[in-house]
Amino acid sequence: MYAQRSGTITLRLHGFLQPVMRRTKEDAQQTRESLLDAAELLFAERGVSRTSLQDIAKAAGVTRGAVYWHFADKAELFNAMMSRTTLPMEDSLKSIDTEHVAQPLAELKSSMMDVMRRVVHDPRTQRVFDIATMKVEYVDELSGIRKRHIDVHRSYRDHVEATFRRAQTLAQIAPHHNAKLLAVSHMALVNGLIHNWMLDQTQFDLIASADGSFDLFVNGLRPAC
């Protein structure tokens, strides 16, 4: 049903407006995902600095204006691409209740192993980690990426530190160890394993090496009998 008002036509169909709005939102979300998909593939192929927003728009089959509708700049697009893959892993770690968990070290290891399995078995995760470790420079328009990277690392480190403190409270590791240093060491272990495996995936089994390395690290922290 239509109503004429001041020379314009106004829709009065109660059942029409909502589906149209939903369709518009779905289209916008689909465009956003297409841009992220295109960026991910181009960043992996060319590197971030050598990929322009025009390249991404063309690969996604949209205009450059559509890119700016969803993202302010390349850094924001890059961060959205990273978050799409890494947020589930970040949430996995943050799900550890560091105040009440009974086996904090086991939960920390489980979270770490989940990351390793994703890197090995999920093509998107592997591609995104490759981009993040090998194909991005924190300069010029990409300086905003560095800030997000630092924020994520600090949040991760703080949660790991709290997990080690919980383990000390439960006498699962010796009390004299510096929990912050343990968190930094754990992050170095995780990042080092992933980085070296990404350089040459034939040199070692990432999942088995992560499993054994974590146990070696933690066993050295146990209280003396």
Give an overview in words.
The chain is elongated. The chain has 9 helices and 2 strands. A hairpin with a 2-residue loop joins strand 1 (2-5) and strand 2. Strands 1-2 form a two-stranded antiparallel sheet. It folds into 2 domains: 25-71, Arc Repressor Mutant, subunit A (Orthogonal Bundle), CATH 1.10.10.60; 73-220, Orthogonal Bundle (Tetracycline Repressor, domain 2). Helix 1 crosses helix 6, helix 5 runs antiparallel to helix 9 and helix 7 (143-169) packs across helix 8. By secondary structure, the chain is mainly alpha-helical.
Jot down its keywords:
single chain; about 220 residues; mainly alpha; Arc Repressor Mutant, subunit A; Tetracycline Repressor, domain 2; 2 domains; two-stranded antiparallel ribbon; 9 helices; disordered N terminus
Helices and strands in order, then pairings?
Elements: E1 2-5, E2 8-11, H1 14-46, H2 53-60, H3 64-70, H4 74-94, H5 104-121, H6 123-134, H7 143-169, H8 179-199, H9 206-219
Antiparallel strand pairs: 1-2
